[in-house]
TrEMBL record:
The entry's keywords: Cell membrane, Membrane, Transmembrane, Transmembrane helix
Subcellular location: Cell membrane
Major subcellular site: membrane
Protein name: Integral membrane protein
Record organism: Ligilactobacillus acidipiscis DSM 15836
Amino acid sequence: MGLIKGVFIFSVLLFVIHEVGRIAKDVNVSKISQGLSSQSWWQVLLMLLLGFAAVTPMLNYDFMVTKFLPDKYPVLYVLKTSWITNTFTNIGGFGGVLGASLRALFYNKKDSQKKIVGAIAKVALFLVSGLSLFCIISLVIVFSLKDRAVSHYLIWLVGGSLYFPLVLLLTRFNDKGILKGLTLANASRLITGSFFEWFGCVSFFIFIGTMLHASPQDFWSIIPLFVIASVIGEVSLVPGGLGSFDVFMIMELALVGVDKNIAVVWVLLYRLFYYIFPFALGVFFFIHDMGKRFNAYLQGLPKNILQRLAQFLLTGFLFFSGVLMLINSTTPNFAMTNKYFLDVYPYTFYFLNQLISIVMAFILIGVGIGTAARVKKAFSLTIIALTIAILNTLRWLVFYGEFSWKMFVFLALIMLVAWFSRGAYYRERMAPSWGAISWTLFTYLGTFIVYTVVGVLNQKMLHLHHKFIVPNALFFPSQKIWLMGFVGLILAALVLIGLLHYFFYTTNPRLNISVDSERVRRVIDEYGGNEISHLAYLFDKQMYCYQVDGKDQVIFLYKKTADKLVILGEPFGNMDHLDDALTKFMNDADLDDYSLVFYETAESLIIKLHERGFDFFKNGEEGYVDLKNFTLAGKKLRSERALVNKFKRQGYQFELCQPPFDKQFMAELKNISDEWLGHEIEKGFSLGFFDEFYLQQASIAIVRDHSNKPVAFASLMPQGDRKTTSIDLMRSSDQAPSGIMDHLFISLFEEMSKQGYEKFNLGMAPLAGVGSSRFSFIEERISHLIYEYGYKLYGFQGLRNYKEKYVSTWKPKYIAYRKKRSMIFTIMQVVDLINLPARKNRQ
């Protein structure tokens, strides 16, 4: 059945193409042109509207078909499919076969073939009942007027008049089979609909005759002629009665006193306004419906491609028009003397006023930026801007230039493309990307500088023309016009700032959630955390929570920078929902024009991200100490063993302190931290910083000297399980001896091993080799330099060598970013983010 439906749809499309071509061949363009030229524009419009109105009674048939079916169909759907079916049947009825086939196609979504065929058969019996009634009316007219012109065609009227009573008798005395359920009310509605269908045909045909000022001997004689021609057309089964109807009407109109040339135009106009124009609309509806089916079959891909293409073309046109208008406004002499510019400038907009022209150019560029970002706010502004520009351009063409239909069609197509692209606008806001801001600044500042230079040079030429020569390309008509344009540039700056603020500013609750320590703690307690989850208690990041039935399942920690959301590490929580959480987070971020960047993320997550369109590169390794096998025995750590023994002899003691901590203890740690920092400023995001609330959330390891004074400390970062632990802040005072941190580490390893932990995370060793090979991509090598020197500024080098002596396993960490996004911009934004001074979002 699927194959049969496909072949049928393809056959109908071929038929449509064939009929359009055949009609085009049969139509005499010169005669139609002559007939139309004699009509005023309002008469042509009236014929168009009445032609469509004459078709509308036929829509009753499809409403009756759906009435006989058990399932209900939307009114708009029935109207559209009815228009397609009836206008197609008008052109190529094939004795009702095409109409029946199309109805079977459109109403087979819910109902069985048997029910559909039964409903169509009931309606089909009454399709020409109205014509039969007009045969009876025509007989009355013929005998009343004693019209001999049609006396030899009476057999057609008599035969046609018999159809109505026969069908009425058949349906009234037989209610079995396909006629079951055909009540008198339903039959009456079908007969009435058919009558008004043919009444519309006859009335519209006579109306065209009056518009052409045709002069038949008696207009009443036109009705029998029209009915006889229609009967002949129906009996011949020729699609739409083409040929048979036309020849008969032209010949018989001449017999009743109508000029033959007028008769030809009369029939052609009838065909044009009753058949062809409604059929053209039906073709549009048919293609639209088939397109929707094809789009649904391919899961929306064709529609998305077309909308993206329309949005891409519209964006290009807005930028193209804006730039051309700027060139024409800032260097008018160059624009008017450059052949290539003159070739392309007609495909933009015209504004006579210099100020308005410059402002409008930047409005187009501004809405073009919003269109490129697919912000919903930009669509209405784009339509308004295009409407104003098009109306002004048409006004200019009408009053100051030669009106061009070619230009009118071009502008209409631009508006059509804009309207078709509306589905591509889906974002709530536009993120302030470096690319968009840089391009806007470059365009505006470049224009401002060029325009200012042109003004200065023109001023010098006016006063020092004998000493200073200005290139012709930079000549300006007058300083007054230049000054008006300069004011336009100032206003354009305000317009651009306003537009960008309008696109940027939106408060989105999904992506503006501060860290809630209680929510974080509940997730960690129930599902466990990871190596970064404890950093949530710093409150210098935001969190995205994926929920199921209102309950937090997965949490991401991130920070915003430009158009990026930089996620630290991996999400934590219920990993059974990780896939859904990633998809939801990406969709919510995309609605606000943000792209996700995962910083220091693990290999396991990279695979999932790669499937979702991410590129990645390695940015370091994370070292793990095997606590089960850790020992100071042997040659590898003999110097550290000696160091530990030395500190023990000197009275240094290790202690693992548990929260809550009193104020005196915190003050001692603060003094150590300040001495360790010196004049440096603490960084945040991927690192902890000294914060009392944060330090109160976990144990702190300290080393005291012989006088019991703390000289070094390290804060622990629990991961929500009893297998792996880690440290964050590592600080020592100025009085601490060299090597004291090794003593603290070794003591921690031994203590955590006693408590049953299996691994100790020593943290990241950045720059494990991205872009270091001569075979690396240029972009990777540049990114490596940015990343490396960005870190060097803040003393991150040498960490791997220090940790190497303890680490038994290195696990790679990656930066993942969306494909087609600039790696260089991404690295610069990440480096900028991690080097920002530490700052809490909430106290």
